[in-house]
Amino acid sequence: MGYLKERHGMMMLGKPPEGTCPMCAVAHDPALPHNRDSLAYQYKFYDENGRWPTWSDAMAHCSEEVKAFWIEELKKRGVDVE
User: Fold this and answer.
1) Residue 49: which residues within 8 A CB-CB, separation 6 or more?
2) What are the residue ranges spanned by the domains of the chain?
3) Are 53 and 11 in contact (CB under 8 A)?
4) Looking at residue 16, what DSSP letter applies?
5) Which H or E run contains 82?
6) pTM of the model
7) Is 36 exposed, middle or buried (0-12, 13-18, 19+ CB in 10 A)?
8) Which band of pLDDT confidence, cut at 50, 70 and 90, is reported for residue 58?
9) Those residues with Cβ within 8 angstroms of residue 47's Cβ, 6 or more apart along the chain or in another chain
10) Helices of type H across the chain
11) CA-based nearest residue to 36, from 47, 24, 28
């Protein structure tokens, strides 16, 4: 682990359920973004980076086409990704 273990001496998240994404603990296609609102994702990301994740972080591993689609759909819901 990283930041949280160094700062607090522990990290209380266990392994995600079988068949789910190891980063966000949600069953999704690996080509799609992580669930930015998943507590598992938020704490794992914070532990690795020392800050809370954004939607840009959640889709950083995605193709440009997938990113464009998600940015547009999130914008329709009032979420500013950029």
Assistant:
1) 3, 57
2) 3-76
3) no
4) P
5) none
6) 0.80
7) buried
8) very high
9) 1, 2, 3, 4, 5, 11
10) 3-8, 39-49, 55-58, 64-76
11) 24
Q: How far is 61 from 53, CA to CA, in rounded Å? A: 13
Band (pLDDT 50/70/90 cuts) for residue 14 is: confident
Instruction: Show Cβ contacts of residue 44 under 8 Å, excluding neighbours closer than 6 positions.
Output: 13, 23, 24
Which residue stretches of 9-63 are H helix?
39-49, 55-58
Give the angle subtended at the CA of 77 by the CAs of 46 and 54, to the nearest 5°: 15
Task: Please give the DSSP secondary-structure letter assigned to residue 18.
Answer: T
Provide the 10 A C-beta neighbour count for residue 4: 18
